[in-house]
Amino acid sequence: MREQYVPPSSELTPREVAIQMLSRREYSRAELARKLQQKSFQPDEIDVCLNSLEEQNLQSDERFAESFIRSRILRGQGVIRIKGELRQRGVDQETSTMAFAAVEEREAVDWFELARDTLARRFSSPGDTPKERAKRERFLATRGFNFEQIRYALSCL
Questions:
Q1: Which of 30, 77, 107, 153 has its CA 20 to 30 A from that of 68?
Q2: Residues 12-37: tens digit of each pLDDT
Q3: C-alpha distances in angstroms, 123 versus 42, 117, 137, 141?
Q4: What is the pTM of this model?
Q5: How far apart are CA 28 and CA 94, in angstroms?
């Protein structure tokens, strides 16, 4: 199989670089902007490129957020952590809320059961001592589950 010639990145346009990146996975607009800045493209070039990609529906923060949420659910992460990571990736609150609603509707996510399953994969018992129980609580809290979900998961083990 012949290898395709890829010109050095200095010869590529911001659009070409962005499309190469988007062909691998979804990116938020802020992530793409940051990556293009790292490649020394000018801010006005980046803005024009990202606006064009968004108009053509090649880049979408909504699609990125939904994909990101689904991947994090599969990893056993809770709402709190997922929302924080979306915020770090430049997704605004409104987009995040809409994406959560869309995913929860399509996937029928039960956050309580997800917390229980995540805990069961890591630990076989709820813990005999207060120290062991606290360890399990911290584990679920760092995964982004709220107090009620943690309490439910511990009661089910």
A1: 153
A2: 899 999 999 999 999 999 999 999 99
A3: 50, 10, 11, 15
A4: 0.86
A5: 14
